[in-house]
Design a protein that fits this description.
Ferritin; mainly alpha; 258 residues; 8 helices
Length: 258
């Protein structure tokens, strides 16, 4: 969804040179929100980090809906040491807890409006995603930013603003709603990669983030496929064309994390 298409899309791709961004503020969404209200930026994206190592703790159905299996995640977390947590790592966990909630909340709202099963299915998966980040919050004794907050309510101002814009755009038409879904998954992939840059020696955080990335790749494929069924050719808004094609050219991931 580009801003050049009268907010059909969400902003010019942001230049993501991690070396120029303070570690404590490597957040894609605030910049994207600025783009939504009229600011332009560069076109480069950081390379997606596809790593080998973390155990797969997901369940994937035939449509690509990818949920984190709570039992499998618990077993893996128990087997991993509890390391020391930097302030940047802690901030990343707290942020991703709300970002995963944002995906769920937007999909629930758009699913109720358009009665398309893809939104209900992926919203259910996103619930397990935000719950998996909650496991890290509990594990490290952090304050949960979600708590008892209602759907559509966020402590982080950039996420609140982005949620409101996404819901407004997705309410325009079914195609716009599906575009919103695809862009959310792009944003999620980029933010997870930026957060992974800050993880030092904490395999438990890497485990969760890499499984969430697998889910976002599958969900991006699902939204693009549904758009194709509506005769709409989606183009990436935040990933590079090469990153996007690498994901779309791959099959739904149902096994080990690459």
């Amino acid at each position: 969804m580009r801003i050049s298409r009268a907010l059909r899309g969400f902003g010019a791709r942001r230049k993501r040179n991690a070396a120029l961004i303070p570690r404590a503020s490597r957040v894609v969404l605030p910049a994207i929100l600025l783009a939504l209200i009229g600011c332009s930026s560069g076109s480069d994206s950081p390379p997606l980090q596809i790593q080998t190592g973390p155990t797969d703790v997901t369940s994937v159905d035939s449509d690509g809906n990818t949920s984190v299996n709570a039992g499998s995640l618990a077993v893996e977390l128990v087997s991993l040491p509890l390391g020391s947590l930097s302030d940047v790592e802690a901030a990343g966990i707290v942020f991703m807890r709300e970002e995963e909630k944002l995906a769920r909340d937007v999909y629930v709202t758009l699913g109720n409006q358009w009665s398309q099963i893809i939104f209900a299915n992926i919203a259910a998966s996103e619930q397990t995603h935000t719950d998996s980040v909650l496991e890290l919050i509990t594990r490290y004794g952090l304050i949960d930013p979600v708590g008892s907050n209602l759907p559509g309510v966020f402590l982080d101002g950039s996420l609140q603003g982005l949620h409101d814009v996404l819901v407004a755009r997705g309410s325009a038409s079914l195609i716009d709603a599906l575009i919103v879904g695809a862009e959310i998954e792009e944003i999620d992939l980029i933010d997870l990669d930026l957060r992974l840059l800050d993880v030092v020696g904490n395999d438990d955080i890497e485990l969760v983030y890499e499984n969430l990335k697998k889910g976002s790749r599958n969900h991006l494929r699902a939204f693009v496929r549904n758009l194709e069924n509506e005769n709409y050719s989606y183009q990436p808004q935040h990933l590079t064309q090469a990153q996007f094609e690498a994901i779309l050219n791959g099959a739904m991931e149902s096994g080990a994390i690459p």
